[in-house]
Amino acid sequence: MPLQLRPVQSRTAPPTSYENALADELEAVYGRGVHDLAGVVAALNAGGLRPADGADWTEETFTAELARLSAGEA
């Protein structure tokens, strides 16, 4: 039996526009070769996408946001 990867098979709803924007921004950051947490946070702050409170990203707010977004995806 062939295996198939379906990365969103457990989603209960389509991604929001915010989730799509964050995913696009992260894809661009990783595509530029930035892979360390501090570099990703700095790149997000250099872009226009902000967390819900409008403040700059920090390592803590970024990791908390990823945890929040993935909480229902198990």
From TrEMBL:
It comes from the Bacteria. Residues 3-70 form the Recombinase-like domain. InterPro entries: HTH_62. Pfam families: HTH_62 (PF20552). This is Recombinase-like domain-containing protein. It comes from Amycolatopsis acididurans.
